[in-house]
Write a structure and sequence with these properties.
The complex is a heterodimer.
Chain A lengths: L6 E6 L7 H12 L3 E4 L6 H11 L3 E6 L4 H14 L7 E5 L6 H7 L3 E4 L4 H12 L2
Parallel strand pairs in A: 1-2, 1-3, 3-4, 4-5
Helix pairs in contact in A: 1-5, 2-3
Chain B lengths: L3 H7 L2 H9 L3 H12 L3 H10 L7 E7 L5 H12 L6 E7 L8 E3 L6 H4 L4 E7 L10 H11 L4 E7 L4 H8 L2 E6 L8 H4 L2 H4 L2 E4 L7 H13 L3 E3 L4 E3 L2 E4 L8 H18 L1 H32 L1 H11 L5 H12 L3
Parallel strand pairs in B: 1-5, 1-6, 2-4, 2-5, 6-7, 7-10
Antiparallel strand pairs in B: 8-9
Helix pairs in contact in B: 2-3, 3-4, 3-7, 5-12
The chains are: A alpha/beta, B alpha/beta.
Bound molecules: guanosine-5'-triphosphate and magnesium ion.
Guanosine-5'-triphosphate binds next to helix 5 of chain B.
Chain lengths: 132, 331
């Protein structure tokens, strides 16, 4: 048995108070053999980046339901730049209008999963993205 | 999950080492992963750190799932950090026996301290360790001590062997219990009652706290932990806390300081650190014997032959084990 594990951070950025979706994804990832760090509600982009570094994760999944995804994700990548972080894929999930997909991808998001995406699709994507 | 090979190109070794000594989030985070993965590079790092630092003060916080351990750590540290101390938290949670994955959610309850510049938090799953503490915890403690942390708080869920190991590792062991309904108090059945230096009755705002307090105190009156060699003793103490109603936290902090002073004055602090080193040595031997020695034995023909002999009823497993050891072990 190998001791190496994929580590993923699931974070909620912004002020909305719902994390059922994030928890369902976290659970599914755990069941697929991944170590999932979950930080609960209302993290800031700074917190997310610091946590990702301390926990040395291979991928960040951000859930946003508040509608403020454009500003928040932009801020997240600004902190990435400050900390000189490259090669750390970011997934975004939640209520994201399709009109915003292009913008989010342009600023660096690897993949967007809107609410209603089958969980298995998310798990598969995470596994293939983090495969060694 | 960083491989040593790609680390060679991307981060030169010295850069990594400097980052660790400066307690940078990125380098510490990486180094802990290398330790967890038993990567060769981790041993190189540790070799460069060994013997060059003062040991940090280790506080173990253990107790049943959901007792409020993480919430307590958050409250405790919030004030301690005002004294400009550098504090690290290692939050250990079980890996799933089935998938090997883990849900590491202790940070949910540590929101007040996550942003503090002097705090480093790492969530750790138990991974392969069969009972007992993940050996990676020992090396991580060395790493964090070398990075200049004054204090390291280790949260573990009190189940099975882990709870006893964490008590051996920690200088001060805090056992967290909660009020329980009924006459059968679960925590009394666990070994936890035998090993704590300080007991916390958390969620004291809940019904049943008063009764539980009486019962725990009765138990304490029966015994005090004595160290025969040094002829000194520490009587376990009980503190009632509620992180909801915000009381008992100051008292808990004072009790921890009291225990720290007791350890320092009695020289138990140094003694404990020597014992931890021995414990780690034993762990490493066990791990190496398992992977190197047993792994090799299982591949040899005698082993296969003996196994068949057991199956066919010619010898007992005990005889086979003795024969294999006699044949392979030269001391
Ligand atoms: N009533 C009451 N609830 C509390 C108190 N302290 C914590 N809790 C609640 O207890 C639950 C568990 O708290 P945690 O701090 O996550 O407990 P834990 O022991 O770290 O849990 P695990 O790490 O999952 O074993 C949370 O819902 C807390 O809000 C308290 O003093 N009183
Ligand atoms: Mg916890």
């Amino acid at each position: 048995m190998t001791l190496e594990k994929t580590r993923v951070l699931i974070a909620k950025i912004g002020l909305d108070g719902h994390d059922r979706g994030a928890k369902v994804v976290a659970r599914a990832l755990k069941e697929s053999g991944i170590e999932v760090i979950y930080t609960g509600l209302r993290s800031t982009p700074d917190e997310v980046v610091r946590t990702a570094l301390q926990e040395d994760v291979d991928l960040i999944g951000v859930s946003i339901l508040s509608g403020a995804h454009r500003t928040l994700i932009k801020k997240l990548f600004k902190v990435f730049k400050e900390k000189e972080i490259k090669d750390l894929p970011v997934l975004v999930g939640g209520i994201i209008p399709e009109d915003d997909y292009q913008y989010l991808k342009k600023i660096g998001v690897a993949k967007i999963f809107s609410t209603g995406t089958p969980i298995s699709e998310i798990v598969d994507f995470v596994k293939s993205t983090t495969a060694p | 999950m960083i491989k040593s090979s790609c680390l060679d190109n991307k981060y030169r070794f010295n850069e990594l080492l400097t980052g660790i000594l400066d307690a940078e989030d990125k380098e510490l985070g990486r180094a802990i992963s290398l330790i967890e993965n038993r990567d060769k590079l981790a041993y190189e790092i540790l070799k460069n750190l060994y013997g060059k630092f003062n040991p940090a003060y280790l506080i173990g916080i253990t107790g049943p799932p959901g007792a409020g351990k993480s919430t307590l750590i958050d409250s405790l540290l919030t004030d301690w950090l005002k004294e400009n101390k550098k504090i690290a938290v290692i939050a250990v949670d079980p890996s799933s026996q089935i998938s090997g994955g883990a849900f590491l959610g202790d940070r949910i309850r540590m929101k007040n301290i996550t942003n503090h510049k002097n705090v480093f938090i790492r969530s750790m799953a138990t991974r392969g360790s069969t009972g007992g503490l993940n050996p990676a915890v020992y090396d991580t403690v060395i790493l964090l001590s070398a990075a200049g942390f004054d204090m390291i708080v280790i949260e573990t869920v009190g189940v099975g062997q882990t709870e006893i190991d964490i008590v051996r590792l920690a200088d001060t062991s805090v056992v967290v219990a909660v009020p329980e309904a009924g006459d059968e108090i679960q925590i009394f059945k666990s070994d936890l009652m035998e090993v704590g230096d300080i007991f916390v009755l958390n969620k004291a705002d809940l019904p049943g706290a008063a009764k539980m307090e009486i019962m725990i105190n009765q138990l304490f009156n029966l015994k005090s932990k004595t160290n025969r060699n040094l002829d000194i003793s520490w009587k376990p103490q009980l503190v009632k806390t509620s992180t909801y109603e915000k009381y008992g936290i100051d008292e808990l902090r004072n009790k921890i300081i009291e225990h720290y002073n007791f350890l320092k004055e009695s020289r138990l602090f140094e003694l404990n650190h020597d014992q931890v080193i021995e414990k780690q040595l034993i762990y490493l031997l066990e791990e190496k014997i398992y992977t190197d020695f047993i792994g090799k034995i299982r591949n040899c023909d005698t082993y296969k032959q003996l196994l068949e002999n057991i199956v066919s009823g010619q010898i007992t497993p005990h005889q086979a084990a003795d024969q294999l050891l006699k044949k392979n072990l030269k001391l």
